[in-house]
Amino acid sequence: MNFVGLLHSLGPLSIAGLAQGAIYALFALGYTLVYGVLRLINFAHSEVFLMGAYAALNVWGLFSLNQNSATPATVVVIGLLMLGLVAAIIASGATALVVELVAYRPLRRRNAPPLAFLITAIGASLVISEATGVFTHRSITGVPPLIRPADVVTFGNLHITNLQVLIIVLALVMMFGLDRFINTTRLGRGIRAVAQNPDSAALMGVNKNRVISLVFLLGGLMAGVAAVMYVLKIGTVKFDAGFDLGIVAFTAAVLGGIGNLRGALLGGLLLGVVENYAAEVFGTEYRRVIVFVLLIGVLMFLPTGLLGESLGKARA
Amino acid sequence: MLLEIDNITLLYGRIQALHGISLEVDQGEIVALIGANGAGKTTTMRAVSGLRPIASGAIRFAGQDITRMRPDLRVVRGISQSPEGRGIFPGMTVLENLEMGAYTRRDGAAIRQDLDRVFGLFPRLRERMRQPGGTLSGGEQQMLAVGRALMSRPKLMLLDEPSMGLAPMLIQQIFSIITEINQQGTTILLVEQNAQQALSRAHRAYVLETGQIVKSGTGSELLHDPAVKDAYLGVA
Amino acid sequence: MNIEQGAELAVVQYNDKNGKDCVTIKKFDSQGKPDVAPGLARQLVTDKKIIGIVGPPFSGESEAANPIFNDAGIPLITPSATRVSLSSHGWKVFHRAVANDGAQGPGAANYIKNVLKATKVFVADDQSAYGAGLADVVKSTLGSLVAGTDKTDADGKQTDFSATVNKIVQSGATAFFYGGYYQNAGLLRKQLTAANWKGTLVAGDGVDDPGYATAAGNDAAAGTIVTCPCSPASKAGGSFVGDYKTKWGVDAGTYSDVAYDAMNIFLKGIDGGNTTPDKMLSYINSVNYSGVANTYKFTSTGELDPSLIKVWAFKFGTDGKTAPDQEIPKS
After folding, report:
1. What ipTM was assigned to the predicted interfaces of this complex?
2. Chain C contacts of A68, Cβ < 8 Å?
3. Same domain flag for C167 and C275
């Protein structure tokens, strides 16, 4: 156990953890939004993310960019990032809507039991990921080096790179925007109404199916942004990339309090930081062990997670 | 006729909850539905607002067939409901709950006028404006549910057990406000276990037993009907 | 394929020199499959004219087929099966004309110490038998030069290596040995480059795959060193490289030179009158043969004499492919 190393590297580990956690948080929002409204774990959310990642790569591929390309000029990079984000958001949002329409809505219309939803969720996830596997020959796809790594802050052994800043800032902006949307707009109020009392919401004139679609779309949008950040940070994509990330993001959602937007942010960032601290102290191979010990510990004392289940009960 | 319910039946799984109910509510009336627990009063309300699909029969509102219409569209047509158990959004403030009542409307200025009207009827709600709905007392929640139902400017208001769980003084107060709302021009269909209050306020009333209407008449007729007295008014 | 063609070239040259068809080569195609090899092996041992085998080429099928050859007493020399455990089964017929995988660890450590001349080295592995085995040998060989260690998830199971990357950067290491396979190694290299780490990644032959450059990107991959318990065939002695090209129309591939040598050991044995499997076996056990790729002398377990083991370093170029760098000095 290397606690001295932790103290020495507290700065860099925290920044690396926050950048990693920002992606978990955006990813976790999709689980939390859908759960808040439908009490359903959308396991296919990992593939919503995956489609976003491939969409961004395909758009960049249209410009003949791959992992061996040179980094283009800054203006071009900004344009490419915008295009990638738009493509990822569209692909992820569309995937989320299609999953809801094909895998969940028909079951809802027939009042199917929760177990049926769980199975179609896992089924939809497997279908998309395996089809992607077949289509890509299960090989890894490289990502063009759009962002040439550079330190923007240097302080002692702490080096904060441009990519880390971009990821953390973008994630916070997205989170803030979503939070404002849910809490201050009419549509956002409709979402909270369905989450808190679906029948009452219908009596107020809220179209439940439209709210559900909106929630899947918002989750997809966040996953699309997370996907672009992921490919820039990791540098490759594979057909099963969503699976592992999905489990961690889902854990983050539960840790923060599933159904709670700010809980997803807190849970995601905390998980990212804890993983990095644990990797330093105990070794990278123990990071998930520590994360789940932490999760169980938190749930023992706070069964609804750190911030509770909020779209439902307390203030969102 | 503002609302016509024509021989509707309704199933909960295999259990038949309504056995062919027909009733009418005319423009400007207060109509009460009375009956024991499980007689089908709340189920009838849910059928009218569209929360439960009916198995057979028809529902017409303002001359239009709304039997298969989605619940949110019925709100747009002019039906609002203060549901059984009040159905407050616990995580929203009193103000947000009232704004939810106006969810289908886009006329901002008129919504503010209606807010003032509700606050005029229920001054307590103005005091608690920024407080989450879940922290209100039962009586305050009831006021909020009625006020919220007013916010859509309904033609027809469905009130399900507005007196449930309230202290006697509050019951008096809520019923006089209901009368006031009616006098301001809103038609009301009222479900009550407190038959005494309901019948004395209602123009007309129906008595439900096990999913069927067994009696109907004006409020005062039923108030003096020996059988009704015996079964629902708690006096010999 | 290039192994078979190497061996066949030796036979053709032998027959040309000594008149037609003194020796014939019989080919058995096991497709590298452990479930196909035993059937072929049983078929092979019934042929009484076979007195020696060059092969089998792969480790998996060797495990399956070698017991059958051992029971039949037919001597074999594999030019390319490098799994360490093959020499530990007590097969008296087994000989290996190349270094085994265990030689990669010391080779990589020696390269880091003597060629890169790194004084701070970070060592990590993927907890697999192959990866951890290599990393442990590297750690014990480098001793006090090791500035830090870590363990990652299995290959393809982890994508974010920020904790490991941070450790490497903070350790001040200029060389990083990774015991594992190409997917993890490629991602590590890419993320290390993104974190501005300019040191050299050294790994075993599990990383020698085009997928490494795909994951890392050619620019980041360039300069990475992978070890191999082999010598590049293009560096073979004599006229082998030219002869092979003339005969087959392609360049000699990895291990084709060793297969050529292995066949020549058998042919030299036949010249010496060792025409039964028994005689051939005792001849090979004491042989001291200088071929085009190496000099061959076997220990009692059938391994090459330690002083003859060669480990080569290959380097990734900016084209994403590996090219021979140098033979790794032994100390």
Report:
1. 0.92
2. 217-219, 320
3. no
